[in-house]
Amino acid sequence: MYRVKEAFYTLQGEGAQSGRAAVFCRFSKCNLWNGREQDRASAVCNFCDTDFVGTDGQNGGRFESAEALAAHIRRLWPGEQGRPYVVCTGGEPLLQLDEPLIAAFHQAGLEVGVETNGTLPAPAGIDWLCVSPKADAEVVIRRCNELKLVYPQPLALPDRFVDIEADHYFLSPMASPSLPEDGPDPVKQSNTRKATDYCLQHPRWRLTLQMHKIVGID
Ligand SMILES: C[S@@+](CC[C@H](N)C(=O)[O-])C[C@H]1O[C@@H](n2cnc3c(N)ncnc32)[C@H](O)[C@@H]1O
Ligand SMILES: Nc1nc2[nH]cc(C(=O)O)c2c(=O)[nH]1
Ligand code: SF4
Ligand SMILES: [Mg+2]
Predict the structure, then answer these.
(1) DSSP 134
(2) ipTM field
(3) Which residue, of 15, 83, 168, 195, is most buried by count of CB atoms within 10 Å of its CB?
(4) Per-residue model confidence as pLDDT tens digits over 62-81
(5) Of 29, 87, 114, 134, best ligand 3 pocket probe by most atoms within 8 Å of the beta carbon
(6) Beta carbons of 25 and 5 less than 8 angstroms apart
């Protein structure tokens, strides 16, 4: 059984695949926060900008088989154009994504991307793996396509992650978790300046912005 909070067609807004059309499959549940506001401050990850509790979002639900979920996701891709792409996110997708589901996505003609906090081992067969470390949580994934660190995090300084092998190293300015996505966000503005300065001083790191929030899409 797979539990999905929501699924929607949009453009990837972050990282090296920014601007690419994708169906986002947001799995329910995370291992670093239970999703309740009253427990945010004491969670390992306390800046999450996402509601991943339950299965009640758009196109969300409980799926009995990998094939049923893959067919559901494939139907959200518009027609036959381009290279159909699913981004598995959450919540923490590696609590649920397994090899049978990856195989079912591939069978349905989907390339498979994953956004993970890196604390759980990744099943084989993922086409694009993005690891985004959180606070002092141990990262067990040693190799990925992109490492995308939300910045600044006092317990997760960039230097700690340069030994993780990645094709791209990104800093993503931390946004306020609870503001409406289209309003002004002074905290994000100040974090964007800090991330910019860090990238200028440490040119291994590149800046990525949450483009979807800038243009006002999901
Ligand atoms: C909601 S998480 C879900 C996937 C996975 N649990 C993870 O943390 O990577 C998706 C992406 O949003 C990023 N993110 C979450 N809260 C954020 C915030 N307040 N500002 C900027 N990025 C944020 C995460 O770092 C991750 O790259
Ligand atoms: N457009 C868009 N791009 C994204 N990239 C990563 C996201 C996520 O929440 O995992 C995300 C998201 O929520 N929306
Ligand atoms: S950002 Fe990722 S790791 Fe952190 S609480 Fe949200 S879903 Fe979990
Ligand atoms: Mg998001």
Answers:
(1) -
(2) 0.99
(3) 195
(4) 999 999 999 999 999 999 99
(5) 134
(6) no
